[in-house]
Amino acid sequence: MKTKITIGTRSSKLALWQTNYIKEELKKFYPNLEISLKEIKTKGDHITDIALSKIGGKGLFTKEIEDALLNGEIDLAVHSLKDLPTRLPDGLKIGAVLKREEPNDILISRNKNVFKKLPPNSKIGTSSLRRTSQLKALRQDLEYLDLRGNLDTRIRKLEDGEYDAIVLAYAGVKRLGFEEKITEHFSPFDILPAVGQGALAIEIRENNLEIEKIISKLNHRETHLISICERTFLETLQGGCQVPIGAYSEIKENKITLQGIIASLDGKRIVKDKATGDLEVNSCRNIGINLGKTLLQMGGKEILKEIIETHR
Fold first, then answer.
1. Partners of 277 in the beta sheet?
2. 276 phi, psi to nearest 5 deg
3. Residue 160 annotated in active site
4. Catalytic residue (one of 75, 83, 105, 164)
5. What pTM did the predictor assign?
């Protein structure tokens, strides 16, 4: 077995936390394995003053890392699953998905007001069209502004008074120890999360059986099946991470239920439905495909077409 491996990661505090977490988990199974980290800047890291939806292109936070993986500079890459495009470059695959953290979004507000109690015209910061669309569906009387930067930067902008409240993924807030700042947890049924939100994925080269065997110890079966379900749904809609598409999976009594949403940018049109099936690979793929097709037929196709034309 290999005695040394190199993990590729972004250099943000959250990315490094996630990668070090995986490093420590691997060490539990392979205490003698020498693991080094290689920090890699991505396009999304370099461009911090433009809304993600306006930068365009897929793989904003993954391409440069994937290039290093294909070139053999690293043995595996750690990603937030929600950042990974549904179609990976030829020669790469997801080797393992770790147990998912709670996938819901949270609100942090300066005056500790919950979302319903925020004064009209309050400035709300978020980096996601998915969040903005669903929040607008709940309240049209607030001002929604783009919010970029790493997690600690976003919180600092809030505390400096640039925003009255910000909306973030719970997983990152918890991982970096900012839980005490949370004002409100949104239900994942009210604000559907991004596809794969809260889960970490390990990307590897295809046919690299040695690395695949090493990381297989970290794969969480239920989260892996959830990722298949949600990512197939997103691929069916041909949506990237910067389109107002959300998904939430629940597993009960060996069945998986996927709820999906497509929202217009103004939040005035919402297409939402759910599908249930068996907890196994082919069933999960079919659930994602069928729910995607259903939402397109319910009016989602027209909504997505308008959004694509708006952001050309």
1. 256
2. -130, 145
3. no
4. 83
5. 0.91
